[in-house]
Target: Multifunctional fusion protein
Amino acid sequence: MIYLEHLLEATGGSLRYPGKQTRFAAFSHDSRQLIPGELFVAVRGERSDGHNYILDATRRGAAGLLIEAAAFNALSSEVQSELEQASLATILVADTRLALQDYARAILQRWHPTVIAVTGSVGKTSTKEAIATVLASNFATFRSWQNYNDLLGLPLSLGKLEERHEYAVLELGCDHPGEIAALCRLVQPHIGVLTNVSPTLLQYFGSLENFAAELGTLFTSLADGSYAVFNQYDDLTRPLIDSTRRITFLPFAPSQAYNVKVSWEGVSCEIPPEAAGASKPLTLNSRLLGAHHVSTMLAAYTVARRCGLQPEEIQAALTQVTPLPGRLNPLPGVYGSQILDDTHNAQPASALAGLSALKALPAGLRIAILGDMHGLGSYEENAHRQLGQAAVRYVDYLITRGERAAISAEAARQAGLAPRHVIVTSSHEDAARAARSILETHQASANVSNVVWLKGSEEMRMERVAELLLAQPADAPEQLVRQTPGWKQIVVTRPERPTWLEIDLSAIASNTRKVKDVVGPKVRVLASLKADAYGHGALKVARTVLQNGASMLGVATVSEASPLREAGISAPILVFGYVPSWQMREALRLDLAVTLYASSSAQALSRAALALHKTARVHVKVDSGMGRLGIRSEQLDEIVGFVREIKELPGLELEGLYTHFAVADMLDLTLTRRQLSRFQQVLSALEEQGLRPPIVHACNSAATLSLPEAHFDMVRPGIAIYGLDPSPEVRLPEGFRAALSFKTQVSQVKWVPAGEGISYGYTYITERPTLVAILPVGYADGFRRAPTNWGSVLIHGQEAPILGRVCMDQCIVDVTHIPQTRMGDEVVLIGRQGEARLSAEQVAERLGTSNCEVVAEILARVPRVD
Model:
């Protein structure tokens, strides 16, 4: 409970409007998650400014506002009037973050509970909860909310501290040097608990030793007479113990526990009398899963004994400690399975603990779904490789989601896990679909369930996979992590720069399945991945389409295929373009199908195949009217002779015959049908000679949709896979979705006087005072400069016209009519923003080109996130 008088006294704030309420249930800094009666705190963050959502918070039932005076003074008179009429207590301070810290420090001093601070690499939230649960059996105990553990989250959480609380159990986290010391200065702990030290957040600390030193400042920050609780056998913790300090060190020793048992009911162990401080051995039980939670129980036991609880009291209270959402929490899954939800976060130690728990629990099949582990710095690749090698000892199937986790998949294969039991995916839906297929095929007996364990860093949002595997998906909001409205809208992955592409892999998956539905089960689908999958990212797209109905991939060049093979893509790949003789061996090494249309190329490929003792797959290209690569269709004798030559040349296997339509994206199919007729004549001639290859194909996206008689054995969709219309005349059917969004952020907002030139060449002169926004995107990103540019972009759901010339790395837009524009605001270049939409098709029309060119020209320096 927050009292207005306490808040004003602690922060030195001024009461701009008195409001109706003088007490508030809690702080809230996200208007989307605000509960009526809470005090909204407007916080300036890295990606947004809470001051932009003051009215939203007011309309959602906030009982008060804590805002910065400068921001309040910048509000329009209309907004200030609405706030005054709302009768909300409005407190003005210089800095809301510092004000929250001042309040937290003051309220702890006012109510003076015994503060227990818990930190560590892993297990700190579970340990904090276990300590609080045990103490709450005898004392009024406050615990910090979830993992609100930094200089913003902890003060927000302390809004619920009350005078009655005798103990405050607080979690301390860090992502930069000095943060633990700053948190200790804030909360002044009486007891410090360090769970362990293991690799995480190394991108911020450089080395494990530096990170250990940061965690160790918990002990150096304790005042004389305080107590330090630590794992006696943690190798990296022991050097942090300074015996000269005038504090009491209370070690707990997991290695002393014996008779450890893990079941679906929880973990139990026995500890000897000397460890229990009792006259006889003591059995500890909790409902936590996994042998690693012996440390959790012992840490809670050690703290509780210091706080005066008797062994039997602690023993009874530990049985009430249950798994938190996302932390090895068992949930009913599809097909009678058991979900072991460990999706809160991941680093090597917690992932290995989860695998160990999976192995220890009674199960039929054991399936692990592993997402990327972030925050490991230079240790990242090696950590994923070691985890994959370890997984072989624990799982029957390994499904991975993400590029880093793919390293684990390859390591698992190399360590002996059967290749068909290792499935690499790039989307939540594909990971879940792979698991569902396994569970459906191998349904367990009535006595034992198949188990699916899910793990990944917060950025990977692996709870989305868990939701798709729940027996009752409607229970997700109560059972899974990150289910609030705010989290549902957050993309956690941070791009490498403030201009980026968002790729919706679920849209690509859905579009692929829809193409497959169009052509039916007997016709194969080759997905075109030319130009880095039309700018969408070839590797992730390849994995996605292969999981959703495509059985072959197409690329323009041998070099485009190389990264796919290096990443473990084993599906057939056809090179559409010219392969010079000197590149034939590389094509064979990569096991690519080669397009041929000349005898000299066929002979060069044959020689390369003989030299490498390999067989080269060949597709013959027929030019039926496109005028590009291929043998002209009217040269029937030449085509028949060339096909016969290929079949006779050693080392070559004739796999396919194809053509390409030039105008299938027009409503009038007359010319396309003429091409089809010419191609069918070639096919008939080959069939008469018994030379028809097994795969005949002709259809691009447009023809796939409009010319079913040309489907033959395989179709080659490109643009449709990415949810883009083949042309203004041939639109995609209902249900296809665009997969790409192109975004940036406002880097500056300022007024430019009338009569001033904008950008290079002063091609635009302001006619009036103009509010402009500078955007960090330019023609070196594929954001066209000339002969015409994009025209406008979307900011706050409104079009903002581009002013002057687009620069290499920046451009300028007019936001005079969007005065709420601020630095850091999202800008949409392609995609949706609220009800507004700027599609690739609209951009193409403005530029006088095709949507395909628009997306394919977005350069590689623009990071892709999904």
The mean pLDDT is 95. The radius of gyration is 32 Å.
